[in-house]
Amino acid sequence: MSKLTHLDDKGAARMVDVTQKAVTEREATAEAVIRMAPETLAMIIDGEHPKGDVLAVARIAGIMAAKKTHELIPLCHALNLTSVKVALTPQSDPASIRVEATCKLAATTGVEMEALTAASVAALTLYDMCKAVDRGMVVEQVRLLEKKGGRSGHWQTDS
After folding, report:
1. CA angle 93, 27, 117 (to 5 degrees)
2. CA gyration radius for the chain?
3. Could you give the CA distance from residue 91 to residue 34 in angstroms, rounded to a whole number?
4. How many CA atoms lie within 13 A of 76 on its CB side?
5. Annotated binding site for substrate, which residues?
6. Burial class of residue 136 in the structure, from the number of CB atoms within 10 Å of its CB (0-12 exposed, 13-18 middle, 19+ buried)
7. 12 has a pLDDT exceeding 90
8. What is the mean predicted confidence (pLDDT) over 20-35?
9. Active-site residue numbers?
10. Which label site among 50, 82, 123, 139 has the fewest CB atoms less than 10 Å from its CB?
11. What pLDDT shows up at residue 132?
12. Between the CA atoms of 17, 116, 64 and 152, what dihedral angle is there, to the nearest 10 degrees?
């Protein structure tokens, strides 16, 4: 099996060759948080946003982004995802929406980038849909929470 690296023997960038790796069930969960004005959050929760159900649109955007990660992140493998879930949870203190994305598949490579992309794009979609009423929103805390499967096994953040 070749070294798992994005560099070839001459130091040039390449896609990692995962041909000889075993197919295993893999899962990754990532999050992003978008902070906003309390009035913006109330508008979203109460269903009074002028653009409609922004949470539904953000959820679909996150799912679609996970499926297109290989088109957005150089050298990522095109993956046949078996499940993508995007949950959006409003939080009052501070006024924010927590986006949690979980991706699953059975393959020779993991799905961390797909989960991170889904969470990021869902948060950015919320920003895009709400920027007319709140330009001060902040997307933050994009991070991997947990990954399961593959050669490196299970990993989970401490916080």
Report:
1. 60
2. 18
3. 10
4. 20
5. 75-77, 113-114
6. exposed
7. no
8. 91
9. 128
10. 50
11. 93
12. 40
Q: What is the pLDDT of residue 3?
A: 53
> Residues forming the annotated binding site?
75-77, 113-114
User: What 3-state DSSP class applies to 105?
Assistant: strand
**Which residues, including other chains, have CB under 8 Å from residue 18's CB and lie 6 or more apart?**
4, 77, 108, 109
Question: Alpha-carbon distance 22 to 29, whole Å?
Answer: 21
CA dist 60 to 12, 99, 154, 157, Å?
36, 12, 28, 26
State residue 152's pLDDT score.
Answer: 83
Token digits for 146?
């947990």
Instruction: Summarize pLDDT for 103-136 with one digit per residue, the tens.
Output: 999 887 879 999 999 999 999 999 999 999 999 9
Q: What angle (nearest 5°) sits at the alpha carbon of residue 23, between those of residues 77 and 110?
A: 40
Domain assignments of the chain as residue spans, ordered by start: 24-147
Q: So what CATH class is 24-147?
A: alpha beta
Q: Is the pLDDT of residue 66 over 60?
A: yes
Instruction: Note the pLDDT of residue 2.
Output: 44
0.70 surpassed by pTM = yes
